[in-house]
Amino acid sequence: MKNRTSYGDKGFSEFLVTAFQRQLGHHPDDFQKPVIGICNTSSEVNRCHNHLKPMIEAIKRGVIMAGGTPLEFPVISLGEMFTSPTTMLYRNLLAMDAEEMIRAQPIDGVVLIGGCDKVTPALLMGAVSADKPAIMFTGGPMNNGEYKGKILGACSDCRHFWQEYKAGTVSEEELNEINSRLAPTAGHCMVMGTASTMAACTEAMGMMLPGGAAIPATHNERLSHAQETGRAIVRLVNEDQRPSKLLTKQSFENAIRVLMAIGGSTNAVIHLIAIARRRGITLKLEDFDRLSNTTPFIGNIRPAGEYQMEDFYYAGGVNSIIKELLSLMSKDEMTVTGKTIAENIKDHKVDEVYRHIIKPVHNPLYKDGGIVVLKGNLSPNGCIVKPKAATKKLLKHRGKAVVFQSIADMEQRINDPNLEVTEDSVLVLQNAGPKGAPGMPEAGMIPIPRKLLEIGVRDMVRISDCRMSGTAFGTVILHVAPEAAVGGPLALVREGDEIELNIEEKQLTLHVETEVLESRRKEWAPPELVERGYTKLYQQHVLQADEGCDFNFL
Ligand code: FES
After folding, report:
1. Do 137 and 115 contact (CB within 8 A), yes or no?
2. 150: Cα within 13 Å, side-chain hemisphere
3. CA angle, 306 as apex, 300 and 307 as ends, to 5°?
4. For a substitution probing ligand 1, which of 41, 188, 442 has the most ligand atoms within 8 Å of its CB?
């Protein structure tokens, strides 16, 4: 018996269900087969999920070929550019939507359809909590864009060219032309932003068929991958392979190894902590730090490297990364193929032609991973930085703080010609964290003040309790915890305070006497919170960045 609506009379429930199965055009026997829910996130508002229909048809084909009955159902779809104030505010809402629908409906297993940044982690969080057999399928990255012979990538180049336009080195006409080529095909962003990173991590943790993360959205191979995903979920149901059996601490550590080796998005730190937490596994920032220290950076992919997802695909994608890293990974972790991660790539070879994209572990781009965890009196619970996307000379820096009390304050004053700022200043943004913003928007790549851009400054040390897009770059310190809105030390920083960053020593220090900070704390008052609705629920229950920003009751 699959889930049925309760009327207090089991026989009547069964009688009604049969009538409505017939209304769907199904024979009641169809529901004796494995019933596979297809968690459809296609949406005309979410361009990264606008092309999924043929893929869903291919998944259904695979389900039917393997002897199952597919039933597609909708859940919330979150598109980065089209969700105000930020998709992160709604990641947990989508996770709740997915969890409850997977649990409530008469399905035996589920295909999760991810893509844009928050969708993949949210669906995994929901599926892990619901704990029915599940497999992830993503819509794939866009193909490369091109402008005057230069490869364009959304959204690293969105940011790069906007900055150059503000600096006066790119004209409005050029900017418009570039704009029309930044997102040339269907698919999600095609650099190693959050979407690509989460797809790669999902593959590495064993919840997606091998190769799935990098196949471009437009390639026929994505349709055959979809069909195989449909077949695989029926097998997973028949074998009763649930996320609780597949996902272990080691499979999350495998995902973190891949994250570090590809210089993936800082957002993945928050998402992996949240997904693991749903599985009852505690991932700490120290785990990311430990694995970063011992994982060579081998994927030469933007924004930390030079190439894009289409190139990464030709180079063998995540299979090639795992092949290289295998000696550092837990080889026996089971995956949705029914085989271990090591068995999956047993016959895979990294083609020497693509060594400019996938470096060997013995000759990496860098000897350690792409994300560094910092501690210090400004961020007692930790914060993170992507040193490979930062400016070398700023990795050790001491400067005076220029403080913005909110995102609105920053937007209003950052380009003010009278702003007292030099290239040695440290830009500090407060109250932009999970509770404070709310939703921890991707405002951490604080814009360089226009007057500094005009004299050639392109990077500065920037510190905040918010996030930045996985496609962004610069010497940007993110996820400061505890955040300013709950009284973290970030709230106590004042204009002109000296702040020291030392990435090699993994320290972020506010050079202000403890007594001074204590007296400032006495004057501090928490910001006003939203009075109603989902945002009220969010602000009351969201955890801090180092805990994954999930709700405390989930
Ligand atoms: Fe969806 Fe970038 S906007 S992945």
Report:
1. no
2. 9
3. 75
4. 188
CA distance 149 to 165: 19
For tokens 């500090």, name the residue. 428
**pLDDT tens for each residue of 442-499:** 999 999 999 999 999 999 999 999 999 887 889 999 999 999 999 999 999 999 999 9
Contacts of 224 (CB under 8 A, 6+ apart): 58
The alpha carbon of 196 and the centre of ligand 1 are apart by a number of angstroms equal to 9
Q: Is the distance from the beta carbon of residue 80 to the nearest atom of ligand 1 less than 6 Å?
A: yes
Question: pTM, whole model, 2 decimals?
Answer: 0.96
For residues 308 and 305, give the distance between their C-alpha atoms in angstroms, rounded to a whole number.
Answer: 9
How far, in Å, from the CA of 140 to the mean position of ligand 1?
11
Q: Is 373 in the pocket of ligand 1 (CB under 6 A)?
A: no
- CA–CA gap between residue 210 and residue 341 (Å, rounded): 9
Inter-CA distances, 279 with 24, 104, 309, 551, 554, Å: 35, 19, 30, 14, 11
Is there an atom of ligand 1 within 6 Å of 497 CB? no
Buried b (16+ CB within 10 A) or exposed e, 466-504: bbbbbbbbbbbbbbbbbbbbbebbbbbbeeebebbbebe
Separation of CA 197 and ligand 1 centre (Å): 11
Q: Is the CB of 188 under 6 A from ligand 1?
A: yes
**Is there an atom of ligand 1 within 6 Å of 167 CB?**
no
pLDDT at 389: 86
Provide the pLDDT for residue 473. 85
β-sheet bridge partners, residue 135: 111
**pLDDT score of 472:** 82
Token pair of 354, please?
Answer: 């693509």
Give yes or no for residue 81 CB within 6 A of ligand 1: yes
Residue minimizing CA distance to atom 2 of ligand 1 = 189
Q: Give the pLDDT confidence score for residue 239 in this predicted structure.
A: 97
- Which residue ranges in the chain fall short of pLDDT 70? 1-2
* 227 token code pair: 């069909």
Q: If we measure between CA atoms, which residue out of 391, 358, 267 comes closest to residue 259?
A: 267
